[in-house]
Design a protein that fits this description.
The chain is of the alpha+beta class. It has one domain (4-93): Alpha-Beta Plaits, CATH 3.30.70.100. The protein is 34% helix and 36% strand. The chain is built from 3 helices and 4 strands. A 4-stranded antiparallel sheet has the order 2-3-1-4. Helix 1 (17-34) runs antiparallel to helix 3.
């Protein structure tokens, strides 16, 4: 299985959840239409932890991730998210095995 993936866990400042989710939704709209090499990009709310969000991101390869990071909508997200966050952690990963919507293994 090819690709480059990451998870990002965000802890949002109290009262900033809706603003952060709105920023995420705007960014995801641009990712869907402008980034064909971004294969999966999903924001999750954590059950029983309303200030936590986990992003799962899967790119065709590391070059696709690098291109993603240079997009204007991503740069805006990176700049604007800081006002909404207490903290975040990033784990970079390479897929070993799995199932994707295209039947990948």
């Amino acid at each position: 299985m090819d690709g480059f993936a990451l998870t990002v866990r965000f802890t949002i400042k109290p009262g900033h959840e809706d603003d952060f989710d709105r920023l995420t939704t705007e960014t995801l709209s641009a990712i869907r239409t402008r980034e064909p090499e971004t294969l999966v990009y999903v924001s999750h709310r954590v059950v029983d932890s309303p200030r936590e969000r986990i992003f799962y991101e899967l790119y065709r390869d590391h070059a696709a991730f690098d291109a993603h990071e240079q997009q204007p909508h991503v740069k805006r997200f990176l700049d604007d998210r800081e006002q909404h966050l207490d903290s975040f952690t990033v784990d970079q990963m390479t897929p070993v095995a799995g199932k994707t919507g295209d039947g990948g293994q």
